[in-house]
Design goal:
Length: 201
């Protein structure tokens, strides 16, 4: 049984999608061992508690990054997580944090990386006038929105779109793509050559 750790800072819609996929058997042999938020008021942490999951708040505000990271890593290791999924976690992980879990941290970003990294990706895409956007699930490395790509899903930008409608359609695909990426990683049937992740079946 694979143990997942979820890190979130807000509503946690990707966390809910992952939890629903586990419950429905779309991610076999997996369970969520711990959900951690750096914000006590995050709706996602309330949802985790409602679902009876192990939910922990480790506040980050006003604390040195290193101190906070060490506490989060300790909680993840204590719960023996096999894979960490960032689900709207609004903190940049330190290089030290990333080194504790090599190839075991996933993130989802609402653009087709390397286009539009960082915050407000959908707004950036809309303002730039692209005809296709989407989402990317990737391994986390020591650079922002940079690690090897696991899954990408394209979303057309329609003529009648606003930032809101585009964001909503990308989010639908995020929920599907994250489940697919977690399955790929847990099954382990891949090799990474340079930046390229290739199936090894």
């Amino acid at each position: 049984m694979h143990s997942l750790g979820i890190l979130l800072s807000g509503r946690g819609s990707n966390f809910v999608a992952i939890a629903d996929s586990i419950d429905a058997g779309r991610i076999p042999d997996a369970r969520i061992s711990i959900v951690i938020s750096n914000r006590a008021e995050a709706p996602g942490i309330a949802i985790a508690r409602e679902r009876g999951l192990n939910a922990l708040v480790i506040p980050s505000k006003g604390r040195p990054r290193e101190e906070h990271d060490h506490e989060v890593v300790a909680a993840l290791k204590q719960n023996q997580v096999d894979l960490i999924c960032l689900a709207g976690y609004m903190r940049l992980l330190s290089p030290w944090f990333v080194r504790q879990f090599p190839r075991k941290i996933l993130n989802i970003h609402p653009s087709l990386l390397p286009a539009f990294p960082g915050l407000e990706a959908q707004e950036q895409a809309f303002a730039y006038g692209v005809k296709v956007s989407g989402c990317t699930v990737h391994f986390v490395d020591e650079e922002l929105d940079h690690g090897p790509i696991i899954v990408q899903s394209a979303v057309p930008v329609l003529d009648g779109d606003s930032e809101h409608t585009l964001t909503a359609r990308i989010l639908e695909q995020e929920h599907i793509a994250y489940t697919e990426a977690i399955k790929v990683v847990l099954e382990g049937e891949f090799v990474i050559t340079g930046r390229r992740l290739v199936g090894n079946t």
